[in-house]
Amino acid sequence: MVDTKCFDHQQLDVETTLACARRLYKDRNFRDTSRLFFIEGVRNFVRVIDNRFELETILYSEKLLAAPLARKLVRQSRRDGVPTLNLTPEQFRQIAYNERASGVAAIVRQRWAKLSQISPQTGLCWVALETVRSAGNLGTLMRTSSAVGGAGLILVGNQIDPFDPDVIRSSMSGIFSQQFVRTNLTQLRDWLHQHQCQTIGASPDGNIDLYQFDYPPATVLFLGEERQGLTPQQRDLCRHLVRIPMVGDADSLNLGVAGSLFLYEVYRRDSSRQRG
């Protein structure tokens, strides 16, 4: 049960709100049940506003916040009715996770889409995932997807938390331009069939190199767990299995690198089609 006192916008209590911010940073269950997440830093704050996320509360320190754009956006958000708390530098440092306290942070409402609401034609492509070992690799994947115009991530099951602070940090704000869908394999199979999607699985035993494959429109890339790869159930969803060629001693790449290679190859092929 979420403690809603920290989100009483009639009278924000500083200590309670700070406690909520710290809990959102550390506690995935609290993030899941409240459907909120926490961000800190000028870049994240600007990107959240640029991408029209709903801000629950802005926390800032007048004395620490030096960036003119961020100061302007705090004032503008306050005029628009977003609750704001002006903290002392000491109070702000209680919630700052950057080495140098930026002076601005926010409690933000998570944004999810339903599988039935999304189109495989949105963006460059979608990435489907079920398990990820490293939050850093997941953030890197989001950063790359954002860079090439990817639509977002289809998350199978409940294991992955895209709003983990380590994911947000490693995404370098790329997360805020991505859509997220949570579903299961059965629903995903039905959606893929309905839209006649080409599901491409990344696998070392694929029968064609990623540079030789002709990625069609409405591509969904399915990436398996870093060590185990695609499960039999995941492979059943894939029309094609494509491999990354390797000639050295390495027998695998981490999720961030492998996914980024695939995304840029899809981007290259798509750009070639548009020029042609």
UniProtKB/TrEMBL annotation:
<protein>
    <submittedName>
        <fullName>RNA methyltransferase</fullName>
    </submittedName>
</protein>
<keyword id="KW-0808">Transferase</keyword>
<dbReference type="GO" id="GO:0008173">
    <property type="term" value="F:RNA methyltransferase activity"/>
</dbReference>
<keyword id="KW-0489">Methyltransferase</keyword>
<feature type="domain" description="MRM3-like substrate binding">
    <location>
        <begin position="26"/>
        <end position="106"/>
    </location>
</feature>
<dbReference type="InterPro" id="IPR001537">
    <property type="entry name" value="SpoU_MeTrfase"/>
</dbReference>
<dbReference type="InterPro" id="IPR053888">
    <property type="entry name" value="MRM3-like_sub_bind"/>
</dbReference>
<dbReference type="GO" id="GO:0003723">
    <property type="term" value="F:RNA binding"/>
</dbReference>
<dbReference type="InterPro" id="IPR029028">
    <property type="entry name" value="Alpha/beta_knot_MTases"/>
</dbReference>
<dbReference type="InterPro" id="IPR029064">
    <property type="entry name" value="Ribosomal_eL30-like_sf"/>
</dbReference>
<dbReference type="GO" id="GO:0032259">
    <property type="term" value="P:methylation"/>
</dbReference>
<dbReference type="Pfam" id="PF22435">
    <property type="entry name" value="MRM3-like_sub_bind"/>
</dbReference>
<dbReference type="InterPro" id="IPR051259">
    <property type="entry name" value="rRNA_Methyltransferase"/>
</dbReference>
<dbReference type="GO" id="GO:0006396">
    <property type="term" value="P:RNA processing"/>
</dbReference>
<feature type="domain" description="tRNA/rRNA methyltransferase SpoU type">
    <location>
        <begin position="127"/>
        <end position="264"/>
    </location>
</feature>
<dbReference type="InterPro" id="IPR029026">
    <property type="entry name" value="tRNA_m1G_MTases_N"/>
</dbReference>
<comment type="similarity">
    <text>Belongs to the class IV-like SAM-binding methyltransferase superfamily. RNA methyltransferase TrmH family.</text>
</comment>
<dbReference type="Pfam" id="PF00588">
    <property type="entry name" value="SpoU_methylase"/>
</dbReference>
